[in-house]
Specification:
Distance between the termini: 60 Å
Strand content: 15-25%
Number of helices: 10
């Protein structure tokens, strides 16, 4: 460590390096919710739930370990990953996948998105008694769909349990649960939320088994009056290879 950086600083730099290798939705879903307790050569990482802990351990922990070993040296640090057992440093509400930067105040309103913005705000305002459930937002790339979904989630997370995930990540967890014969945990996790936001639903095109599970999750959440918000890059009637019962 010729640059005289402390191991804590090196750890923080390694996390930044890991962030640069990920896209924004990945980082917001799997790294942003983590809590860190850093002391000299002992690094503790706490996940808000077992779902995020397992995903981070499998997908990103090896990359972080390699970055640290390259900077600090093998066997010169202790790295632990666990589920946070207390609520001293985290919200009592689950805000999985949300980005604090994507809120209504920072959304740029224009003629093309006025209706979508108004509907999003009405859903987020729980006192309004909005009947937009589910709420479906669609538009081209870069027009603010993800920003609006995140804004709704951010507002509702103030007193609701919120989950924001891309359709791609939903599929990843679905396939992983099938392979590990652990579908019960998958169902419990995705059906135990007050608000479910799924981005880029068009990713489910042609994936029949995944659509089947999504359909049942969708109905289970509506039955318990949970709010569902979905986005896509095209309107429902243009979603090819999506089951009619889902589009309806």
């Amino acid at each position: 460590m010729s640059n005289k950086l402390s191991t804590v600083n090196i750890f923080n730099q390694s996390v930044k390096e890991l962030e640069r290798s990920m896209n924004a939705p990945e980082y917001n879903s799997w790294v942003r919710p983590l809590e860190f307790d850093l002391k000299e050569n002992n690094f503790n990482i706490y996940a808000p739930n077992e779902f995020i802990e397992n995903f981070f351990r499998e997908k990103y922990l090896p990359k972080l370990m390699n970055l640290l070993e390259n900077s600090i040296g093998r066997n010169r640090f202790i790295l632990n990953l666990a589920v946070q057992q207390t609520t001293n440093h985290i919200s009592s509400y689950d805000r999985t996948g949300l980005n604090d930067n994507y809120i209504f105040e920072s959304f740029v309103e224009g003629k093309s998105n006025q209706i979508a913005l108004a509907a999003a705000k009405q859903v987020a305002d729980q006192a309004s008694g909005s009947k937009y459930n589910p709420l479906f937002l669609y538009g081209g790339v870069g027009l603010g769909k993800t920003h609006l979904l995140n804004s709704i989630g951010y507002e509702m997370s103030k007193n609701k349990k919120v989950m924001f995930i891309s359709a791609e990540r939903f599929m990843y967890q679905f396939v992983k649960s099938i392979k590990s014969n652990d579908m019960v945990k998958f169902k419990e996790y995705f059906r135990n939320t007050d608000v479910l936001l799924i981005d880029d639903i068009q990713f489910m095109n042609g994936k029949e088994a995944m659509q089947e599970e999504f359909f049942h999750t969708f109905n289970a959440l509506l039955d318990k009056e949970s709010q569902i918000i979905v986005s896509a890059d095209r309107p429902p009637n243009k979603l090819s290879r999506i089951q009619e019962r889902i589009k309806s």
